[in-house]
Design brief:
heterodimer, A: 348 residues, mainly alpha, ABC transporter involved in vitamin B12 uptake, BtuC, two-stranded antiparallel sheet, two-stranded antiparallel ribbon, 16 helices, 5% strand, B: 330 residues, alpha/beta, Rossmann fold, six-stranded parallel beta sheet, 45% helix, elongated, transmembrane helix (chain A), membrane (chain A)
Chain lengths: 348, 330
């Protein structure tokens, strides 16, 4: 029992279940999943479907944060990827040609990787602080997206493109399948191969890692480029879902949601450690919260306050120090006490 | 360091514009105010930015109308920053233009610069957005849409559509960005008209931030938590377009199973209206250029103009949209 309680995914999971349970009381049919038009249909499906881009962005963010960095530019990359893909597709003579759409998607993803690598270059190559380095692209990138779309909303009418974010495959939303594939790949690369260890090592101490023979620069470049790629795929999903590219609003503030998802998932901002499954849970919690607000009808004027309250509670519950104070005031773990006293003695 | 560099660049830019202005106004003898000596009226226009298709159409129309009316237009784009706009207005005052027009980025903080214009005896016209200055003598007139009226028009169409029906009409509403003037006023105007009859019920209302993506997401949730929706009222076309996708995804027919009313009449919205997916659009027209130029001429001549002028706007049904679509500018 105590092992379950101590598992780092326990509390995020409790929060997610609590949010869902809230809907059990306030919304009828929230858990009903039907077949409609040959695909699954229901609120739960919506949560994963609309949450898919956030999960992707958060995955990239997790690895960046694990290197004790941060990437503020993901929202802009989301906008750029969608804008470029829609621009290319709107220029096709046949918008439904699979080859043309693949070309546009490929180009957008290559550009996303390049933009991510640019961040990596600024951070690892030049040594700018990550928050500043990525702030550059965060601000400039939205301008670039508007430049691509000419300040307009570019609308496309292409069924292959529509599939990415708004379509279904084997009754499942296609976006979820993409997320599952990217998640599996990432988990394999970081947990079955040594990459995860290298990332954590660089996050723990980049200089020591370099002296130990790890190419810290290479790891950083890879991680930022990967984060760019994730944001690019998310951007394609978001724009494909509504068949249009909106340089102004696509992915606006998604970087903040992603950072929140990572933190809720138990990855510390100081780096050196990360949890992919925690991040996925974190992103799902955020999306469930959003859908819950719409479903139970929180008035728009108080939506932000409601969100703030829930997030505050989530963060407090997540904090071991807070839990220790509130729940176990008298029952401190025996092993911890001598260590604590030791520390006091040393500092005195 | 950065500050110093940007100051340098700024100084350079100012010097350049000064040089530019002195060489151009040198011909007209640098006369103060009047501008009547060479017959050509000079207007300084400070635009918000180019944040949407609506705004771009607005800019284009003002530029074209100025040319058609024989008014020399000095145009600046504030890129949604108030300080840029104040800078632009100050430079217009220095250049001694005949009239200044601008769409304020935000409502407050204009008193000082408007006083400066008043002292220089240059009349100011506000377009599209208002300022909250207590002293209304600081500007001559405000030309723009009446958002409350737009909401009322939307509500009126709904009331007319269902005047023979006795059943309840379940309405869901997609609001604009929370707290923005168009969102507040379009909601209030709509509410005013439909509240006369208790059969009209707004069963859900959420903000869709004026975007397609949010419109779709919110509508998905509405569709699941409310089994019977008759009417959707969206505060702009884009949210309506997003909602249409959600409705289609739920296996319902937009425009038939769920009637849709939106505001704006941008090109994609008009297309959907002509295709029968939207039922009614209340226009919020960016094409106020001609009215602006007329007002400018009157103001410079010293004629009295009303404090508030409403943009000439109309509404569109599906048939009207089919007719109007080929000639739409935006």
């Amino acid at each position: 029992m105590s092992r379950i309680l101590k598992h780092r995914l326990f509390w995020p999971l409790v929060i997610l279940v609590a949010l869902l349970a809230l809907n059990l009381f306030f919304t009828d049919n929230f858990f009903k999943i039907q077949m409609k038009e040959g695909h699954l249909y229901g609120s739960l499906i919506d949560i994963v479907r609309f949450g898919a881009p956030l999960i992707l962005v958060s995955l990239g963010m997790t690895l960046v944060i694990a290197t004790s960095g941060i990437d503020l530019s993901v929202g802009s990359v989301v906008a750029i990827a969608g804008a470029l893909a829609c621009l290319r597709i709107s220029g096709l003579s046949d918008q439904n040609s699979v080859g043309g759409v693949l070309g546009a998607v490929g180009l957008a993803l290559v550009l996303s990787v390049v933009l991510g690598a640019w961040n990596g270059f600024l951070v690892a190559g030049i040594g700018i602080q990550p928050i500043i380095a990525t702030l550059i692209l965060m601000v400039a990138g939205r301008g670039l997206a508007q430049l691509i779309t000419d300040g307009q909303i570019t609308t496309v009418n292409s069924s292959p493109y529509k599939l990415i974010g708004g379509g279904y495959w084997l009754t499942l939303p296609f976006g979820i399948i993409i997320v599952a594939v990217v998640l599996a790949l990432t988990a394999f690369l970081t947990r079955r191969l040594a990459l995860g260890l290298l990332i954590e090592s660089v996050g723990g101490n980049a200089e020591a890692s370099r002296l130990a023979g790890i190419s810290a620069r290479g790891v950083l470049m890879t991680v930022y480029a990967f984060c760019g790629l994730c944001a690019g795929i998310a951007g394609l999903m978001i724009s494909s879902n509504v068949s249009s590219a909106d340089g102004n609003n696509a992915g606006l503030w998604i970087e903040l949601d992603a950072i929140l998802a990572v933190v809720i998932g138990g990855t510390p901002l100081s780096g050196g450690r990360f949890s992919l499954s925690g991040t996925v849970l974190g992103a799902l919690i955020i999306q469930t919260l959003t859908t819950t607000i719409y479903s139970i009808g929180v008035p728009p004027e108080t939506t932000l306050l409601f969100k703030a309250l829930v997030v505050t509670i989530v963060c407090l519950i997540q904090s071991p120090a807070f839990r220790a104070k509130v729940f176990h005031r008298r029952r401190r773990p025996i092993a911890a006490r001598p260590a604590a006293e030791e520390k006091v003695r040393v500092s005195a | 360091m950065l500050k110093r560099i940007s100051a340098l660049i700024l100084a350079g830019a100012t010097a350049l514009t000064m040089a530019g202005c002195s060489s151009s106004s040198g011909g007209s003898g640098g006369s103060s105010g009047g501008g009547a000596d060479d017959g050509k009226l000079v207007m300084g226009f400070a635009q918000v930015g180019a944040e949407s298709g609506w705004r771009t159409a607005n800019t284009k129309d003002i530029q074209e109308s100025a040319k058609a009316a024989g008014i020399e237009l000095k145009f600046s784009d504030a890129q949604q920053k108030q300080e840029n706009q104040i800078k632009a207005i100050r430079s217009y005052i220095q250049q001694k233009v005949d009239v200044i027009a601008f769409s304020p980025v935000v409502e407050s903080g204009w008193d000082t610069v408007l006083k400066e214009a008043q002292n220089a005896k240059i009349p100011v016209i506000l377009t599209d957005r208002a300022v909250d200055s207590k002293d209304t003598s600081l500007y001559k007139t405000f030309l723009g849409s009446d958002f409350v009226e737009e909401g009322k028009k939307a509500g009126q169409w709904l009331v007319d559509q269902y005047k023979d029906s006795k059943d309840d009409v379940n309405i869901v509403q997609l609001e604009g960005t929370t707290g923005s003037a168009p969102a507040n006023d379009r909601k209030a105007g709509f509410q005013q008209v439909i509240s006369a009859d208790p059969k009209f019920k707004i069963i859900a209302s959420q903000s869709g931030d004026f975007t397609r993506a949010k419109g779709k997401e919110v509508m998905e949730a509405f569709l699941k938590s409310n089994p019977k929706i008759d009417v959707l009222y969206a505060h702009n076309d884009d949210m309506g377009l997003g909602a249409i996708e959600a409705i289609e995804g739920a296996g319902k027919v937009p425009g038939k199973d769920i009637k849709i009313i939106t505001v704006d009449a941008v090109h994609d919205g008009m297309q959907a209206l002509a295709d029968g997916k939207i039922n009614f659009i209340v226009e919020c027209s960016p094409l106020l250029g001609t009215q602006l130029m007329d007002l400018a001429k009157k103001v410079v001549k010293g004629e009295q103009v009303p404090q508030r002028v409403v943009t000439e706007e109309t509404t569109f049904t599906q048939e009207q949209a089919k007719e109007a679509l080929p000639n739409r500018k935006y």
